[in-house]
């Protein structure tokens, strides 16, 4: 669902939850949650969506976009803007440097991925374990074609080794489906997730977390395909398994609630969607401090807040949206830093909320911070930065401060000259903005002179 409403992101080992391990299906401990050895099993339940989007100030009814959670932690292409498709002190969060494994939010561990060599191409051979890690790294980096090639090679190797009906093959097919979902190949992803569900039910247990993980992804995919009845059935079954295995008040329970909330949202039930996201938020608040991967849990909590904020914007409850986005922003900075794409997206949506609430000064402040974060993150003044500059100038106009707009645009032009060639489209657009502002100032001056005659 993407990420992050919602939120759907560069993972460090602790910014995203670990890989799904097909061999771990033990019962919950006495507290109703899994012990540390089973925390990785929660990975595949992370919602695959985000309700947040690039905001347009000219359209009150701007639709909420669907985005892959891949964008939740990845930097993406240099110069691009975040995809349409998240308070504690910033220094409070810790990150472990111990693990060198590449983590991915929704990838299943393939039980038979050993040191045996696998041919990826005529020139490339890797061990199964290294191939799995390379596939996850490519997925995290948004290199979907490469990731798909790696995961598919691993799937073929698992089929050759174990035959089609084996848990490792089910996990491998699940991973191939994840990549197709990230690529927007929803029909292909649906078919593969359904196949993974069938294999996992046959080779494991129908109440295993592995089955629930694939059901959760299958349901999310069917929501994207507008197959709401089938999606509801899948997500209900995944929720039942999650509650049985991990308890109602667990991170896993919160993740399944988010998937249900997304279904409600896509079917137009905004009140039900918001209420369900709030239920999930309450669980995240209760469990994050004791979670084995607090950064990842906190990131999911902020995604939930952003999803709530996006629904509040949709309902034109801008003051409430401002509160949700502000809380998410404080927490995101603590986990991700001040220039992460998720922070940039939240600033964009927060500024939109402020502008619709007619607090143009606060909106302007958000856009200024957003532009600085974009330049810092992408190391270039991109077209996305240029669009943010336009939004700043619109706020200056609302504040009747064309001098401020001119000064800000001139500063941007000076910065661009240190990064871009003179004939860059961004430089040309910025010069056109400056000319437009100067013309408006000239008209205002002429109007004032006429009034004094």
From TrEMBL:
Keywords: Repeat, TPR repeat. Residues 1-14 have a biased composition (Low complexity). Residues 1-39, 62-82 are annotated as: Disordered. The keyword Repeat applies. The keyword Translocase does not apply. TPR repeats lie at residues 302-335. Gene3D superfamilies: Tetratricopeptide repeat domain. InterPro entries: TPR-like_helical_dom_sf, TPR_rpt. Pfam families: TPR_10, TPR_12. PROSITE patterns: TPR. Residues 64-82 have a biased composition (Polar residues). PANTHER family: NEPHROCYSTIN-3, TETRATRICOPEPTIDE REPEAT PROTEIN (AFU_ORTHOLOGUE AFUA_6G03870). This is Kinesin light chain.
